[in-house]
Design goal:
Blueprint lengths: L1 H4 L5 H54 L3 H18 L6 H15 L2 E7 L3 E3 L2 E3 L2 E6 L2 H13 L10
Antiparallel strand pairs: 1-4, 2-3
Length: 159
């Protein structure tokens, strides 16, 4: 067939042209088949490694928490404690009742409590309150410490 195109082509030239055609075909196969397949294989290997890591974490968790019902109870208690510290809704009445109890326990007299407008700070709801108190210095300090250590006051990582 090549003889019909150009009768001056020698057998060596035919072999060289065939070799170039094979090399060109190998390059095309490499670029369009092998490289994308290797890229996909590496992506799948990375996904598999990530999933194996997640599986290892879950297996470790399952091994450490074989009594799942007890874990659920502990987690529910932690959620309830968190809701008690930072309730979903602001109830001024509950807060007033709590401060009255602390005032009675410490011997401080509450003269007035004036809540301001609630504001949102990050994901929490803040309720500024102006409190007027009467009592001696040490009882006021005790009152403030109990308010600070109470269930509704938290700061930083404690929350």
């Amino acid at each position: 067939m090549l003889k019909n195109l150009n009768p001056d082509i020698t057998d060596n030239m035919k072999y060289i042209l065939g070799l170039f055609a094979v090399i060109l075909l190998a390059i095309i196969c490499t670029i369009f088949l092998i490289v994308p397949l290797n890229r996909d294989r590496n992506a799948q290997a990375n996904k598999l490694n990530e999933e194996n890591k997640r599986l290892a974490v879950l297996q470790t968790f399952a091994g450490q928490n074989q009594n799942y019902d007890a874990l659920v109870k502990i987690q529910n208690m932690k959620v309830e404690a968190a809701h008690k510290k930072i309730p979903d809704t602001v109830s001024v009445e509950e807060l007033l009742h709590e401060y009255n109890k602390i005032a009675e326990a410490t011997g401080v007299q509450l003269l007035g409590i004036a809540p301001a407008k609630a504001t949102k700070e990050g994901t929490a709801l803040a309720l500024p309150i102006n409190v007027s108190l009467q009592g001696d210095y040490f009882r006021l300090i005790t009152f403030l410490q109990q308010v600070e250590n109470g269930d509704r006051f938290c700061r930083g990582k404690e929350c």
